[in-house]
């Protein structure tokens, strides 16, 4: 039930573009900077000041496992055209976040180029 104004401040303060949404220890959604704008601020007739994470979050979480190959995770990001992918452990608890920046640091140039091309394609 976190207000989107607080989420936006957290994103700015930590220089990040998304925040996971949990219910207890279960990942139930993600709020991205784009979600705040498109599903919150830009929606006509909605009061952004009273909106919470659940009101704007992307549902239908996609993730990878901590022991997945990088190629598999990157392919998943390409197909979904997403820039960030939660990483879960064997108990389905979130243990990290894989971003395009992470891929850029670890992946071969060809894999990175292919991923960026697919993820950046117009939605």
From TrEMBL:
It comes from the Bacteria. The lineage of its organism: Bacteria, Pseudomonadati, Pseudomonadota, Alphaproteobacteria, Hyphomicrobiales. This is Inosine-5-monophosphate dehydrogenase. Residues 1-48, 57-114 form the CBS domain. SUPFAM superfamilies: CBS-domain pair. Keywords: CBS domain. It comes from Methyloceanibacter marginalis.
């Amino acid at each position: 039930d976190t207000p989107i104004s607080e989420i936006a401040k957290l994103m700015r303060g930590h220089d990040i573009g998304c925040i996971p949404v949990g219910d207890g220890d279960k990942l139930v959604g993600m709020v991205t900077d784009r979600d705040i704008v498109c599903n919150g601020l830009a929606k006509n007739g909605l009061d952004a000041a009273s909106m919470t994470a659940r009101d704007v979050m992307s549902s239908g979480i996609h993730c990878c496992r901590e022991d997945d190959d990088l190629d598999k995770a990157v392919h998943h990001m390409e197909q979904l055209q997403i820039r960030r992918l939660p990483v879960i452990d064997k108990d389905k608890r979130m243990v990290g976040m894989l971003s395009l920046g992470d891929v850029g640091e670890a992946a071969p140039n060809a894999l990175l180029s292919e991923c960026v091309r697919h993820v950046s394609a117009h939605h």
